[in-house]
């Protein structure tokens, strides 16, 4: 479970996958119900100076992806 600006998210991924979240987010790891958990963790440093800038970049990228999906043949994409 990861709690961030956008709410609480339950994450369960297939073996070999990973989830990334900001260090400002709270998280909770549930007990293993079957099998064995093998985990690895690491830290990344952003070149954006603050959380507000990172949020703005995320929102802009989301809008660009949505527009690209909604208008795949738009002439601006060929430049």
Shape: extended
* Percentage of residues in strands: 5-15%
The neighbouring-strand order within the major sheet is 2-1-3
Largest sheet: 3 strands, antiparallel
Radius of gyration (Å): 17 Å
User: How would you spell out the order of helices and strands?
Assistant: EEEH
- Terminal Cα separation, in Å? 41 Å
What would you say this structure looks like, in words?
The protein is extended and about 50 Å long. It has one helix at 51-70, and strands at 2-4, 7-9, 26-27. The chain has 79 residues and is an alpha+beta fold. It is built from one helix and three strands, in the order βββα.
Ordered list of secondary-structure elements with their pairings:
Layout lengths: L1 E3 L2 E3 L16 E2 L23 H20 L9
Structure characteristics:
alpha+beta, three-stranded antiparallel beta sheet, 1 helix, 3 strands, extended
